[in-house]
Design a protein that fits this description.
Largest sheet: none
Order of helices and strands: HH
Shape: elongated
Number of helices: 2
Helix content: 55-70%
Strand content: under 5%
Distance between the termini: 31 Å
Length: about 110
């Protein structure tokens, strides 16, 4: 995780809009990344359950249900990222389309 967290975290009372924007962006990225990873793990678990059911309809149904909920989770994560981007652009409309919060091509929002 080198590069993810700075060696020294500065005093939060001295943070400016740049640091707050970067912190919020990293939190959102980590949260959606972890949620996506969990959803993919459940997708694999559901696939394993389904393929190892060996004709048992109850186990196959459980595997299909796990796969279905994993796909629903992935869709919700994707929609949440779109919603976050939309709200971010409402808060700071001068941000060019296609920019990502926390990157160099993303202008600082006005607070």
């Amino acid at each position: 995780m080198a590069g993810f967290l700075p060696d020294r975290i500065p005093d939060p009372s001295k943070w400016g809009p740049d640091q707050v924007t970067e912190l919020i962006t990293k939190i959102i990225d980590v949260a959606t990344g972890l949620a996506g990873a969990v959803a993919v793990v459940y997708l694999v678990i559901g696939g394993f359950q389904y393929f190892t059911s060996m004709g048992d309809e109850e186990k196959a149904a459980e595997g299909r249900k796990t796969i279905t909920w994993a796909i629903i989770g992935i869709v919700i994560i994707f929609i949440s990222r779109l919603a976050i981007t939309y709200v971010w652009h409402l808060v700071a409309p001068e941000i060019p389309a296609g920019s990502t919060p926390g990157t160099n091509d993303f202008p600082d929002p006005i607070f």
